[in-house]
Design a protein that fits this description.
With about 950 residues, the chain is of the alpha/beta class. The chain has a seven-stranded parallel beta sheet with strand order 8-11-7-12-13-6-14. Strand 2, helix 2 and strand 3 (about 60-65) form a beta-alpha-beta unit. The longest helix is centred in the C-terminal third of the chain and has 27 residues, at about 745-770. It is elongated, with a radius of gyration of 39 Å.
Length: about 950
């Protein structure tokens, strides 16, 4: 007679199974134990070893899946391989086309279609294992308004016939065949079966286990708990009294913390306390991780507390979170962003400056050569040329890049030549970006990925990293499966679909960390704790979105699932509830850690145990039981302090050549002047992402310089015949072509906008001036450099002209507005630094007049400086904004400016006056700090 029992919640199942095996007196090798998962086998073997105290022949220990696999071969004598998921998807795709279930060609699939096919395969397996007949499936299909069940009914029989025709089996087919055959098999009188710890099984598994339990002398042990009635009915076990919901652990602690890192630090403190008290964590201590987000913080901050004590991690780390996955995705992103073979510099640099690529080794194992080469490409090929799009062939054929890289090699050119560097760069392109540009099908995609990974392992230092090699093996294995399957012959719609398929391939894939399963602290997911008993339990990140979590979606509604015997979607959290109930019931103490930030709800299991604590203590005040962890941080914002001047700084200032930009920088913020002109720190110029306002301004300046350069050569008054709109439009095209000949997206619009703006400049601004005034262009982009008051000054003037006998200096502005605050020079007191910063916006225009007068001998007051705002909605002569306001005396203004500049430079050179932040910092930060490139270095990011 068989032993069928329901053990109380939280009982030590492993201990009871070991007792049954030892007390039965049967030969251990003739005993077969079946658990729902693999982990209990380790603990059972250890428990038996402790009982026997010597070497012994262990029983056969299986999961249901491993038992099916063994008996399918040994007892049924069948050898056909289990079908790969990719092969199954390929069969479903072919049946879609053959049965006209989806009106698509197998050569015009999308990633979404393949995902649907994979879901269909898993559903067909569930339906077969559930024992649903084709008639019941068709009956259920009539209840499905969306048609998914009807499609499954049409595919059901043809799919499994095709699987067998191709010489495969499936997991469900094996389970059903073994379960049916097992009913007729004869088992010896010495054979014993122990079925333990099951909760949720399909009909095929239930049929096999019920057959084994019926054998004389066999045992079935289940743990009482919520929703146990289903498994009891399937296995023919009398449930008895329902489990008491209050039978969970009474020693429960609750800790709330803002972040998962704070939770880990608090848990680490708990482990440290246990160790200091002489009760270090052992295999009876569990850290439960409901999701993979905690794995890295736990390994980095919690495990060091163990200080060499053994531990075991048995939770898979998603391959989609590994650096290798991110790298492969970046390759595909770069290829996807290319248009007709043209790449943007920013996309290319995100690829080339990735650590895996920029450290690719050239002959002799030199990776520094590659880094230098890509730095030269960034600085000299992209930034200086301001390219917007380019082809790889253009880069590979640019000799200047390789010449400059050779010159920068630390030991001179030596063993390297321009040609060897070119071959090296071509090789990188060929094995990465180039390999993915002409893919035919998924097999070709998989082969390209394998080639890239193996090349990277052989040519990059990362290939010598142990963890990288572990990830590499998993990726290569998965791509080989895809390449060798029938699905490899299926084509997708371009790089975006291949990229999405790649993401979908590896979302369910995990990498498991090695450990010592039977010793030390156990770090597990909740599914790994089934059948195991722990004394101390730490549950991290106990939020409802992880415990129990959000059930995955399904193609079938519950009404259909119930009809064909599948678990209902609304019941999918039952197994998690049951597992955690057993865990909590068997523990001596439980410690919950959860987030107390808005938007993260505590797990329902936390709420249950918290409510029990409140009931037991007769209070509704939950805060009495929750310990809040607050990070110890100093969040005081500090204003930047003064920077004292050294004699070397003063000497540098005295020798520098001043520009209006330098003066304006000091005026706005002396600390910014220090960073820029004394430390000579500057932002690394990035390649253009597109035609932004700064780039457009450069193009406009270059166009106007070239347009007026011909007028400056002749030195005669402009005539209407000189104003050629076709020429200025052609100049715009010329300067756009210098950046990119590939017109896409916003570049097309900006090109048209610039042409129209420059045509308006000629027709609406210049033509009316020429008609009303006698204008002679004297110079464009003229550099003026001279000494004044013992200091050097320099300026670059956009345009100098003589208008009706008066010299005018024109500065082009493509940004800002006419409403910008203007200078108030008459209100400035040269002896009051505070008044400088209140009254001066920029020294640019008056400095132009002063410097031009010194090199030309003209009176500075006779020169008329003005700004030409080219960004006004309607261009006209009124867009000129003169320096002097109505009624201002130019001589008086320039006298004030000269005295102010002299006083400012004297302050710069005074060692007793440090470089101070702006006086209004923290009150009007938009004025200074928001656009400052040094705010991170200065410590003022908190202001803006």
């Amino acid at each position: 007679m068989s032993d069928r029992r329901i053990l109380p919640p939280g009982a030590d199942l492993i201990e009871e199974v070991a007792r049954i095996i030892v007390d039965s007196g049967s030969e251990l090798p003739r005993t077969t134990v079946i658990f729902p998962n693999k982990r209990p086998a380790h603990f059972l073997r250890k428990k038996l070893g402790e009982r026997f105290g010597s070497a012994y022949m262990p029983p056969r220990i299986h999961t249901h899946e491993s038992l099916i696999e063994a008996w399918y071969t040994e007892r049924l004598g069948r050898s056909e391989p289990e079908i790969d998921a990719y092969e199954a998807v390929a069969i479903i795709v072919s049946l879609w086309e053959k049965l006209d279930l989806k009106r698509i060609s197998s050569h015009e699939l999308s990633k979404t279609d393949l995902d649907s096919a994979l879901q269909v395969f898993h559903l067909l397996e569930q339906i077969l294992a559930a024992g649903a007949s084709i008639e019941r499936l068709r009956e259920a299909a009539s209840l499905d308004a969306w048609g998914s069940a009807r499609e499954l009914a049409e595919l059901y029989e043809p799919f499994y016939k095709e699987v067998e025709r191709r010489g495969f089996s499936t997991r469900a087919l094996r389970s059903v065949r073994v379960a049916q055959a097992a009913q007729a098999w004869e088992y010896g009188p010495e054979e014993r079966f122990v079925v333990a710890g099951f909760f949720s099984i399909d009909q095929a598994a239930a049929s096999l286990l019920r057959t084994l339990i019926a054998h004389e002398g066999s045992s079935c042990l289940l743990l009482n708990g919520p929703y146990i009635e289903d498994i009891c009915e399937k296995l023919g076990v009398d449930r008895g009294e329902p489990a008491d919901p209050a039978s969970t652990c009474e020693n429960v602690a609750f800790t709330a913390a803002p972040t998962i890192h704070d939770q880990v630090f608090a848990a680490a403190g708990l482990l440290r306390t246990w160790r200091e008290e002489g009760a270090p964590p052992d295999e009876r201590t569990l850290v439960l991780l409901p999701g993979p987000d905690l794995l890295q913080p736990v390994t980095r901050f919690l495990l060091p507390v163990l200080e060499g004590l053994p531990h075991n991690i048995s939770i898979g780390y998603p391959l989609s979170r590994t650096p290798l996955f991110t790298f492969l995705l970046r390759i595909l992103d770069t290829v996807e962003a290319a248009v007709d073979g043209f790449f943007t510099p920013s996309d290319y640099l995100r690829f080339s400056l990735h650590p895996y690529i920029k450290n690719v080794e050239i002959s002799g194992g030199r990776s520094d050569v590659t880094r230098i080469l890509f730095q030269v490409i960034e600085r000299d090929f992209f930034v200086k040329n301001r390219l917007l799009r380019f082809r790889l062939e253009e880069l590979e054929g640019n000799s200047s890049v390789f010449e400059k890289a050779l010159a920068l090699l630390p030991h001179g050119p030596g063993e390297f030549t321009e040609e060897s560097l070119r071959i090296h760069l071509k090789g990188i392109h060929a094995h990465t970006l180039g390999r993915f540009q002409n893919m035919v099908d998924l097999g070709d995609f998989a082969a390209a990925m394998i080639d890239l990974l193996l090349w990277l392992a052989d040519h990059s230092p990362v290939g010598r990293n142990r963890r990288f090699r572990e990830y590499l093996e998993k990726f290569v294995s998965e791509f080989n499966r895809l390449k060798d399957s029938a699905l490899g012959k299926v084509s997708l719609n371009g790089i975006p679909e291949y990229r999405q398929w790649f993401r979908g391939m590896f979302l369910p894939q995990v990498h498991t960390f090695p450990g010592t399963p039977l010793e030390g602290l156990q770090i597990l997911s909740h599914s790994e704790t089934r059948c195991l008993h722990f004394d101390r339990v730490i549950i991290l990140d106990a939020s409802d979105d992880l415990l129990p979590g959000v059930p995955p979606g399904s193609l079938l509604p519950d009404i259909v699932r119930g009809k064909i015997g599948l678990p209902l979607k609304r019941h999918e959290n039952r197994e998690t509830t049951y597992t955690l109930f057993q865990l909590r019931a068997g523990a001596r103490e439980i410690h919950y850690f959860f987030s107390d930030v808005k938007g993260r709800e505590r797990s329902r299991y936390v709420e249950e145990d918290l409510w029990r604590q409140q009931l037991g203590n007769g209070t509704t005040n939950e805060e009495r039981f929750i310990r809040h962890v607050t990070p110890s941080m100093n969040l005081v914002d500090r204003l930047p302090g003064p920077i004292e001047k050294t004699p070397d700084m003063v000497g540098t200032i005295e020798r520098m050549c001043f520009s209006s930009t330098a003066l304006d920088t000091y005026l706005a913020c002396p600390r910014r002047f220090y960073f820029r002109y004394l430390l000579r720190l500057s932002e690394t110029e990035s390649p253009a992402e597109g035609i932004d306002s700064a780039t457009l301004g450069m193009i406009i300046h270059a166009v106007l310089h070239e347009y007026h350069r011909a007028h400056a050569r002749v030195q005669r008054p402009l005539r209407k015949a000189d104003l050629n709109t076709e020429r200025i439009r052609a100049l715009v095209t010329k300067h756009f072509d210098a950046m990119t000949k590939h017109r896409v997206g916003g570049v097309v619009f900006m090109h048209m906008h610039a042409q129209q703006r420059m045509e308006d400049y000629v027709v609406k601004y210049l033509a009316p001036l020429v008609e009303e005034h006698d204008i002679v262009i004297l110079g464009t982009e003229r550099t003026v450099k001279t000494e004044w008051n013992g200091y050097l000054f320099q300026a670059v003037i956009d345009r100098i002209e003589r208008r009706d006998g008066t010299i005018r200096v024109i500065d082009y502005k493509t940004g800002g507005s006419k409403n910008d605050e203007r200078n108030r020079f008459p209100q400035i007191d040269p002896d009051s630094p505070a008044s400088w910063r209140e009254g001066v916006t920029s020294f640019q225009l008056p400095l132009y007049a002063i410097l031009l007068s010194r090199v030309s001998g003209m009176e500075a007051a006779s020169i008329q400086p003005a700004i030409l705002r080219l960004n006004e909605r309607e261009l006209s002569p009124k867009c000129e904004e003169p320096l002097y306001r109505h009624g201002e005396n130019p001589a008086d203004v320039l006298t004030v400016v000269e005295r102010t500049i002299t006083a400012m430079i004297k302050e710069m050179c005074d060692p007793a006056i440090p470089f101070l932040p702006p006086q209004d910092i923290g009150h009007e930060p938009d004025k200074v700090c928001r656009s400052c490139p040094y705010k991170t270095l200065c410590g003022t990011t908190w202001i803006v």
